[in-house]
Amino acid sequence: MAVLSWCSTVLSRSTLKIIFNGKRYLRDSRVTIAPYLLNRTKPPEDILNNLTSEDAARLDLIRAEHNMFIASGKAVPPSLSAGDYLELLCCPSVSARNRYYLFRFKVFQRREAKRLEQLSKATTKPTTELTQKNQILRMIRSHPIRAHQDDWVVAELRTADESAQTLVFDCSHENEMRLVDQKNLAKQLAMAFSRNREMRPFPFHFMFTSLSPGTNQYHFFEQAFGVHESMSKYKSLDDCPFTVKSEHFTKVVSGRRVVYLSPNAPRAFDSGEFDHDAVYVVGGIVDKAIRRPVTHAWARRS
């Protein structure tokens, strides 16, 4: 039995038990996650300061567990933030917590390696002289042309139904996804939008439907597009060069031909079938943990 200053562990044949403050907890028992813990529109500190007695006891258990892992040399991050503790409270089992510990440990290792690399570069003097040829021409030509192209791209991205083809993303599947899948969806769509800016001659106009303020999905979109960052020129999603609608796509594009794209379709989409007058809808869902063909059902109804 390994004894720490404020918790101890007991190994049996099938169950790892933690004795904390005189109470015994089973680490492999599954818990039911309260809905208020899944709210990501509030700061994690506010949620942790207003926990129920049962969740507060689980938080104490997680803190004891984390310190025990550090003392035993397990691959866990040396420190956890309030957001990390909230994510651990939302893990329904010990295996889910272990996966999150390992994920945060890998993130810590990457950041530490990057910090050491930057530190080594700062202490190493360059062996060659940093010179730049044609510096005057670069100053005259590069920036004005780039600024003109950026203004043109933003204008194309904003002109829905005029010159840019509208591409609708149906974000009505929030209840079908886990929190991690909702985060991944926002990141993937932000990457898709970044790639769309480079499309020539005409980029698509992105439209996100069923995306309402005050929801977790809307909050993750704000994080992915960086609207709250200090250096961002966009202060809300409405300022970004795309369209955000809280209504369902069936109400937004009513009266027009709709083509719903689904990965569960019986055949692949042929480039020769592209219709410039139709509205193409992509299901905004990360179905890593979903086995039901959700988007295919909508495609058949459309």
UniProtKB/TrEMBL annotation:
<keyword id="KW-0949">S-adenosyl-L-methionine</keyword>
<keyword id="KW-0808">Transferase</keyword>
<feature type="domain" description="SAM-dependent MTase TRM10-type">
    <location>
        <begin position="153"/>
        <end position="302"/>
    </location>
</feature>
<dbReference type="InterPro" id="IPR007356">
    <property type="entry name" value="tRNA_m1G_MeTrfase_euk"/>
</dbReference>
<dbReference type="GO" id="GO:0000049">
    <property type="term" value="F:tRNA binding"/>
</dbReference>
<dbReference type="GO" id="GO:0032259">
    <property type="term" value="P:methylation"/>
</dbReference>
<dbReference type="GO" id="GO:0070131">
    <property type="term" value="P:positive regulation of mitochondrial translation"/>
</dbReference>
<dbReference type="GO" id="GO:0097745">
    <property type="term" value="P:mitochondrial tRNA 5'-end processing"/>
</dbReference>
<protein>
    <submittedName>
        <fullName>SAM-dependent MTase TRM10-type domain-containing protein</fullName>
    </submittedName>
</protein>
<dbReference type="InterPro" id="IPR038459">
    <property type="entry name" value="MT_TRM10-typ_sf"/>
</dbReference>
<dbReference type="InterPro" id="IPR028564">
    <property type="entry name" value="MT_TRM10-typ"/>
</dbReference>
<keyword id="KW-0489">Methyltransferase</keyword>
<dbReference type="GO" id="GO:0005739">
    <property type="term" value="C:mitochondrion"/>
</dbReference>
<dbReference type="GO" id="GO:0005654">
    <property type="term" value="C:nucleoplasm"/>
</dbReference>
<dbReference type="GO" id="GO:0008168">
    <property type="term" value="F:methyltransferase activity"/>
</dbReference>
